[in-house]
Automatic annotation (TrEMBL):
Alphabetical list of Pfam families matching this protein: FtsK_gamma
InterPro entries in the record: Ftsk_gamma, WH-like_DNA-bd_sf, WH_DNA-bd_sf
Database matches in Gene3D superfamilies: Winged helix-like DNA-binding domain superfamily/Winged helix DNA-binding domain
SMART domains in UniProt: Ftsk_gamma (SM00843)
Organism: Amycolatopsis tolypomycina
Protein name listed in UniProt: DNA segregation ATPase FtsK/SpoIIIE, S-DNA-T family
UniProt domain FtsK gamma: residue ranges: 287-351
């Protein structure tokens, strides 16, 4: 069985660049078992048919850890560990291929003797013609087996205990993190194009991190000393400047002079005067646009798939917007709660769609009277 895959070059380089941020960079002589980026193929059973093959990667140093995946075609028969130097060389060699060709495809084959061959998909991997890169895998034997356990969900009832008394330690609001830890995930956020979500369970427990719908991270606190946990709020001094009050604005860029009630528009005084003490009432009703949510409900129910990425692609919207629509659909009972990187469970069947859309839109508002046809 050939151990080879094809993958979008842009996706592959983005995956490797993101994993570089949490990887051990100085490999020579440091004795760390975490050195390198571990890659393996898997199947996403929650993905639509034809999109289930994925290439997953993991990299960390025990204090920070990152794990993400991309779509691919084909399968590797074993995991492979790549050195950071080889990853840098691969990115430098294949990045120019994306110029003028965003859909460039790369093939990666694992040889029986530990050789990795990376080539343009149009070329024969085993031939000597065409552009390709070849390097040797790193030994897998010492790679830490607890990496994926660290990334798993932490039970909400977990509470560390005092080593002397055995009494559970109460959670406190402070967690110390090293600057390099924050910088690594900020860089990943920029590469993936999604904000960093931080999940904190206890000041003595690691932080779990999610970026977009495909990246899971782990960050261990920098300190565990009890004396560092006593602060209940930040104690750094805040210095307020003595600024004059800002002038009120009417929302269109013109200044509203509250002293005289004269409205200044485009540098000239308007003839209107207002009584600022008079309460304003009779606001027009707010018109709600339910169509995006109705469109999302239709797609999710008809496809019976509740994934944020698939919904974003179908509606041609950003991933965070699709995630918020799914949260609203959860409130309407269309989908179940979030399951991390897995798609939400769809609770409504296609025959339920008309009732769901009617519930989202709510009762119809009475039409406004036609004053011209019915003069008073």
């Amino acid at each position: 069985m050939t151990s080879a895959i094809t993958v979008g070059t842009a996706d592959l380089l983005r995956l490797l660049a993101a994993l570089q941020q949490t990887a051990v960079h100085k490999e020579d002589g440091n004795g760390s078992p975490w050195c390198g980026i571990l890659l393996h193929c898997a199947r996403d059973t929650d993905a639509p048919p034809g999109q289930r093959e994925i290439l997953a990667g993991t990299a960390g140093d025990g204090w920070v850890l990152g794990h993400t995946h991309i779509r691919c075609q084909g399968q590797w028969t074993r995991p492979t560990l790549w050195s950071i130097d080889d990853v840098r060389a691969l990115i430098a060699a294949f990045h120019p291929k994306l110029k003028g060709n965003k859909h460039h495809v790369t093939a990666v084959e694992l040889g029986p003797a530990g050789q990795v061959v990376v080539a343009e998909a149009e070329q024969d991997l085993l031939s000597r013609s065409g552009f390709r890169l070849q390097f040797t895998e790193k030994p897998l034997g010492d790679y830490p087996r607890q990496a994926w356990r660290l990334l798993s969900d932490v039970p909400l009832d977990t509470r560390p205990v005092d080593r002397t008394s055995g009494v559970p330690l109460q959670p406190r609001p402070r967690t110390d993190l090293a600057g390099a830890t924050l910088g690594a995930f900020a860089a990943v956020s920029k590469i993936i194009g999604a904000p960093v979500e931080v999940y904190r369970y206890h000041q003595r427990e690691p932080l779990l991190i999610q970026i977009g719908g495909v990246y899971r991270g782990y960050a261990a606190p920098a300190h565990y000393e009890e004396t560092r946990d006593v602060a209940r709020w930040p104690h750094a001094t805040v210095h307020d400047p003595d600024l004059p009050p800002p002038p009120p604005r009417d929302g269109g860029g013109s200044v509203l002079k509250t002293g005289s009630g004269v409205i200044i528009k485009d540098g000239r005084a308007d003839a209107a005067f207002i009584d600022l003490d008079e309460p304003i009432s009779d606001f027009p009703a707010v018109e709600h646009d339910f169509e995006p949510l109705c469109q999302a409900a239709t797609i999710v129910i008809e496809t019976q798939f509740g994934g944020s990425s698939a919904l974003a692609k179908a509606m041609k919207i950003a991933y965070p917007r699709a995630a918020r629509l799914l949260e609203q659909l959860e409130d309407h009972g269309v989908v179940g709660p979030s399951r991390g990187s897995k798609a939400r469970k769809v609770l409504a069947a296609p025959p339920d769609l008309p009732a769901v859309l009617a519930a989202i839109r709510g009762p119809e508002q009475p039409a406004a009277p036609d004053t011209e046809a019915n003069p008073t």
